[in-house]
Give the backbone structure.
Amino acid sequence: MTNYPHVLFNKSPLQLRLLGARGGRTFGRNQRGRRARIALMPAPTEAAPLCSAPEQTAAEAIALLDAQFPWLRCAEKRLSWKRQNSRREHPER
């Protein structure tokens, strides 16, 4: 068995060193490019607030919908037809 197994794609130590150096140079070139682009970007101005206060609560929205559509009043509290029938059949629950 050789000292450089198949995982290294049968390259010699010199070839591996050259590949590593090439990757390091490429990384450095890319890093310098990123830093140059960041330096050219304008400085951020005043930060925006993370989240504003909600304009309308859920209860207010429900009250507004109830006023607009009276036939749907308390629709969020209604049970499905199946559940209503099952309660009638089993009143002890």
About this structure: The mean pLDDT is 77. Residues 66 and 73 are 5 Å apart (CA to CA).
